[in-house]
Amino acid sequence: MNPERDYRESTPSNSSISGCNGVCIMSTTWKDQQHPSFINFISSFLDTNSFRLNFVQIAPDFIFNCGGVSVAFIFATKWDFSNIESIFSKIQKLKGQFANFYVVVTLPTKDQNDSFIRSYFKYGMEFGNPTFIPVQDLEMGFEKIVKIAHARGVCKKQDAIAKLKDEREKSVQSMDIYIKVLTSIPGIDNHDAKALNQSIGSIEAIAKASKDYILQTTDLSTEKAETITRFFRDSKYYLAPKIK
Questions:
Q1: Do residues 93 and 64 touch, judged by C-beta distance below 8 A?
Q2: Distances (CA, A) of 39 to 5, 72, 195
Q3: 23 Cβ partners below 8 Å, 6+ apart?
Q4: Lesser CB count within 10 Å: N end or C end of the chain?
Q5: What does the pLDDT look like over 97-138, one tens digit per residue?
Q6: C-alpha span between 151 and 145 (Å, rounded)
Q7: For residue 31, what is the enclosing H or E element?
Q8: C-alpha separations of 75 from 87, 88, 193, 196 in Å
Q9: Which of 87, 99, 78 lies closest to 123 in space, CA to CA?
Q10: Are 75 and 61 in contact (CB under 8 A)?
């Protein structure tokens, strides 16, 4: 590990998101297998980028909760030829349990990289299921983890905003149609239509409402209440030509 590396350069800045970016849950088993200086690096890195760190006994090495989405990671910090089978066995068990699942593997040498490629096909991995991220050192590996988790959280937030915007636009369009229908009744204006919407609700409910009920729940005049009930119930009235 390079202690002089400035880990703040390639991570999301604090200015991009206010408050807490999310929560990082680290496996206590994984933590106990790492050098204390690397755990200190992770803790400082997360604190700098507004992530809260918790230590819990979990199956993956990390779970990040960002923007309403959970992202799980295996972080293989030592590619030892003796532990390859256990790494892929763990991957096979976890890949069906998490919708967002990544494997970060530290491969500083050519021999380790070649071994990883052979093992990838030997253990029948499917491309993208899960996604593997080979890195050359520990710090780079953890930076990749945080960037991926942060990006998934941002995407989730943007999707939610887009959905809310779409629903809001549909709501506005529906209200426009609602007002057009009610203001087509002679003598009913926009204020009357909004009052009916707030007090009675749907056009179907208004069509079923009695004159007395309309008078009790809105500020409409007796004449307007009578016009509305006649409009929805008297075919001779609503089918007759309206000449102003």
A1: no
A2: 15, 18, 62
A3: 51, 52, 53, 54, 64, 65, 66
A4: C
A5: 888 899 999 999 999 999 999 999 998 888 888 999 999 999
A6: 10
A7: helix 28-32
A8: 10, 12, 60, 60
A9: 87
A10: yes
Each residue of 167-208: pLDDT tens digit?
Answer: 666 666 677 888 888 888 888 998 898 889 888 888 888 888
CA distance 165 to 213: 35
One-letter identity of residue 163: K
Contact in structure between 88 and 118 (CB atoms under 8 Å)? no
CA distance 108 to 134: 9
Sign of CA dihedral 190, 191, 192, 195: positive
Residue 106 has φ and ψ, to the nearest 5°, of -85, 120
Indicate the pairing of strand 62-66 with strand 69-76: antiparallel
- Residues 187 and 38: their CA atoms lie apart, in Å, by 76
DSSP 125: P
Residue appearing with tokens 């088993």: 29
Which positions ≥6 away from 34 have C-beta within 8 Å? 77
Q: Residue 72 in contact with residue 24, Cβ under 8 Å?
A: no
Q: Which residues of 186-225 are buried (b: 16+ CB within 10 A; e: fewer)?
A: ebbeeebbebbbebbeebeebeebebebbbeebebeeebb
Alpha carbon distance 161, 165 (integer Å): 6
Using an 8 Å Cβ cutoff, are 181 and 203 in contact? yes
